[in-house]
Amino acid sequence: MATDQDTAKPASESEFPPKRVAGRARGWYRGDCHVHTQRSSGGELTPEELATAAREVGLEFIAITEHNTADTHGAWGSLTDDDLLVILGQEVVTTTGHWLAVGIDPGQVIDWRYGIRDDLIDRAVDQVHKVGGLCIAAHPHAPYPSGVFMYPFRRFDAVEVWNGLWRSDLLWNADNEAALAEWGRGLAAEIHQGAWRPAIGNSDVHQAGQIGTPQTVVLADELGTNALLAGIRAGHSWIAESAEVHLTFTVRAGDRCAGIGERSRTGEEPAAARVEVKGVPAGVVGFHTDRGRVHHELLPSDGMGTVEWRTSRDESEFVRIEVRHPAGHMAALTNPIILT
Question: 263-283, pLDDT tens digit by residue?
Fold first, then answer.
């Protein structure tokens, strides 16, 4: 297996981006954790162009994930400011699936020269976890050779259920419906067993106009690498198709209130799941539990609305939300709130 020194390109410490932005307190931050420059195959944009585009679409953090290289890690130090954090990463392109190593060390390269039959995936994942990074299964049902994710999810921290435009009419688009269905089917069992993998959404940007479609909105203690990775790991996040879509989701039981990725201690009391949405005209808000989609309501034509649905711990082990456009494509989806 390759070491960092085998393939890393030297760069001075000052060229790497800082790991936190000073003065940015706890809040919800919008980001894109699957980003490519010209250094990746099919990439057309320079780091400068990507940084500009990220700001234009309302992103506050991105993760640079070139294909099997850290060559551009040192290009980002001068492109960050108090409005944009850059997290170092890599898209690990193996012969039987792609995955994202997010939050790795400057210049670090994770080995990619294997397939599922080589039994090396656990060693590669350990490389990332050793430095505090996240391992994310990327576009699990991408319809091209090596794009389908053949490895078990068990060692991975999150699953990219939404990659790029939510469309099924383009041959080479990631099959987001299949990825979401697979993640959703496994969620109940994972929660019941005490450990579950959050969903994440990224643009996989290679060309102009793609970045931030979609974007993951993360609750973090600050705008910093460690805080954002902790928020993603805990499932304190939801996915939006753009910065125009806003959502809040809570479950309240008595005087107790839980947010996305948290446990709602309902006891024997009834629980009220409440969703507020903006930016999805005439959209459909769906409530999903371990029984599938159990309730849905329409939003008004201006795209702003509040929907509430009541349940209980005996009836639902968790609740998660999907918001779809009238034509059926996704506008937003959340990680679950767990009822205990």
Answer: 999 988 999 999 999 999 999
